[in-house]
Amino acid sequence: MIDPSSSEEEGDEDSIANVPAKGRVVHPPKSAGGISVIGVSATGSNIPTSGSNGDLSGNCRQSNSIVLSSRVETGSVNTTGAVGLCSSKNDQGHGGRIEGGNLEVPNNGISSGISHETLNQSVGSSRANSLPRPLSPSPSLISEKPETGDFHDKHEREEEERKRRIQLYVFISRCISYPFNAKQPTDMTKRQTKITKQQLEIITQRFQAFLKGETQIMADEAFQNAVQSYHDVFLKSERVSKMVQSGASSQHDFREVFRNNIEKRVRSLPEIDGLSKETVLTSWMAKFDIILKGSGEEDSKRPSRMQQSLNSELILSKEQLYDMFQQILSVKKFEHTILYNALMLDSADEQAAAIRRELDGRMQRVGEMEKNRKLMPKFVLKEMESLYIEELKSSINLLMANLESLPVSKGNMDSKYGLQKLKRYNHRKLILRSHGSLSKLEGDSEDGSTQLTKLDVVLTFQLEVIVMEVKGLKSLAPNRIVYCTMEVENGEKLQTDQAEASKPMWDTQGDFTTTHPLPVVKVKLYTENPGMLALEDKELGKVTLKPTPLSSKSPEWHRMIIPKNLPDQDIRIKIACRLDKPLNMKHCGYLYAIGKSVWKKWKKRYFVLVQVSQYTFAMCSYKEKKAEPSEMMQLDGYTVDYIEAASANLMFGIDLNGGRYFFNAVREGDSISFACDDENECSLWVMAMYRATGQSHKPTPPLTQDKNSAMSKIQGDADKARKHGMEDFISADPCKFDHANLFKTLQNLTLEYRLNDPYASLGWFSPGQVFVLDEYCARYGVRGCYRHLCYLSDLLDRAEKQHMIDPTLIHYSFAFCASHVHGNRPDGVGSITHEEKEKFSEIKERLRQLLEYQITNFRYCFPFGRPEGALKATLSLLERVLMKDIVTPVPPEEVRQMIKKSLETAAFVNYTRLSNKAKIEEDLRGEVLVPPSKKLEDLIHLAELCVDLLQQNEEHYGELRRHDKMDKNKMRKEDGDVSEERNTNDVDFTPNPGLINTCEQASAAADGSSFRYCMPTHAVFTSPVPTARIAFAWFSDLLVEHAEIFWSLFAVDMDRVLSDQAPDTWDSFPLFQILNDYLRADDNLRNGRFHQHLRDTFAPLVVRYVDLMESSIAQSIHKGFEKERWESKGINAALNPTALNNAAQALNTAALNPATLLSGKKDQIHFYVPQLPRQSVSTAVTENMRNGCATSEDLLWKLDALQSFIRDLHWPDTEFRQHLEQRLKMMAVDMIEQCIHRTDLAFQSWLKKNIAFISTDYIIPSEMCAMVNVILDAKNQSFKLTTIDGIDLYKFHAKIDDQIDKANVAMTQGLSGKLMSVLESTLSKLARFDEGSLIGSILSFTNVSSSGKDLGQGYVNFFRNNMDQIRGKIGDDLWTLNFFEQWYSQQISMLCNWLSERLDHALHYAQVSSISHIMKKIYSDFELQGVLEDKLNSKAYQAVALRMATEEATCALTMPEVSEDDPGDDIREADEEDNGDESITNRGLPKTKVAAAQAAAVTNVVAGRVGNLLGKGIGGLSSKLGSGNWF
Question: Torsion over CA of 715, 718, 723 and 727, rounded to 10 degrees?
Answer without folding.
Answer: -150
